[in-house]
Amino acid sequence: MAVRFSGGIGVAGQFRSFTLPDPTINFVAITFGSNSNIYSSPDGITWTLTKSAWTPFAGHGTKVMHDGTKWLVMSADVLDSNRNKFATSPDGVNWTTYAVSGTPFGGGGRHLGGITVSGSTYIGASYDTIYTSTNLTTWNYVTTLGNSENNIYNIWRNSANGAYYLSSYRASTQRFYLYVAPTAVNSWTLQLNLQLTVTSNSSYVNTANMVFTGTKKFWHHSQISSGSGTLGTRVGAKSVTSNDWTTTTGAGTSSGWDGLAYGNGVVLGSVNSTLGLIVRNSNPESSTAFSTANASAGAYPSGFSTYYCVNRLAFGSDKFVYLTSAGMKYSTDNGSSWTLSNLTVNNLATVGSKASV
Fold first, then answer.
1. CB under 8 Å to 297, separation ≥6 — which residues?
2. Which long-range contacts does 338-345 make (Cβ < 8 Å, 24+ apart)?
3. Is the N-terminal amide bond of 23 cis, ω within 30° of 0?
4. In terms of Cα–Cα distance, which of 23, 97, 64, 91 is closest to 349?
């Protein structure tokens, strides 16, 4: 915002101008663990604590998104369904919180497995079941995927064509499933049925993310062991109008991913590694190949591998941000180099931007 003011006594008629910082919030992040906090930033560089000690325990499932009019933060816990919570904000600074209990996310250990929004309707997933709500408190049953083991780990809406997507994992078959609902969330069609690249059923977490480019969408569903590295991962890209997925190639595509973001015409992926591998597709409209952007951008936060439904990457304000064990980092050159911001806490769980879905 440009402001003009007079030069003062003796310089009548002369004006100087200066530009005030843009106060618009473009990024929001949440921490995990006891007394989780919400941080907000206009530029990915300067972060401010905007909600402290929001929930007793943010973990196992977190998501941050912006629906075009407001911010939405989801916190879920598979171990205690009474800890399933939402927070909304029109500006990323002032928050209204919602505690969810009872059907569908309370009792019996049922927990949130992702959320998206269409207009004034929220679409939430719990295990194999889809629900909708207009107030984040009362939820209405819509449909099930037909198998109680089909655990949904994230759900998205493509605002360009109105289609919905969800990613799930079934333990008995050790397979990832990707479903699409072209127009309404009461009718889902299976698009992908993929075997894990490594079959194991030890302690693990699932992360699933999707981004939409001009004519493509990129998706990953990764299963990462908390003690022994990647159990399996699938990363794919496809056109908006085609049902034929093409497996991505190149750097990092055989490892577990824990982040995905699109901006400046490129797609970045974060690979779950002790050094922090960032991979990049510089031409997503015509290529599915990724190359290394930075091989040591920053390790994941301590305890990060015990949580799911997370995204370590986001894009906004002409830059990418990336959460690490040192805190939040940002990149102004599409992932080649990363600089630590003023947010230096070591328990960041998820970050989202106004481009998040």
1. 270, 275, 276, 277, 278, 322, 324, 329, 335, 338
2. 338/278, 338/294, 338/297, 338/298, 341/41, 341/44, 341/45, 341/46, 341/47, 342/45, 342/46, 342/47, 343/29, 343/39, 343/41, 343/47, 345/31, 345/37, 345/39
3. no
4. 64
What is the C-alpha separation between 241 and 80, in angstroms, rounded?
A: 40
pTM, entire model: 0.87
Q: Tokens 């690249």 correspond to what residue?
A: 197
> Are 287 and 281 in contact, with CB atoms under 8 Å apart?
yes
The amino acid that residue 82 corresponds to is: N
The answer to whether residues 93 and 23 touch, using CB atoms and an 8 Å cutoff, is no
Q: What is the pLDDT of residues 285-328, one digit of tens each?
A: 988 899 999 999 998 886 665 555 578 999 999 999 999 999 99
Q: Which residue has the tokens 């970045």?
A: 268
Residue 153 sits at the vertex; the CA angle it makes with 297 and 266, to the nearest 5 degrees, is 40
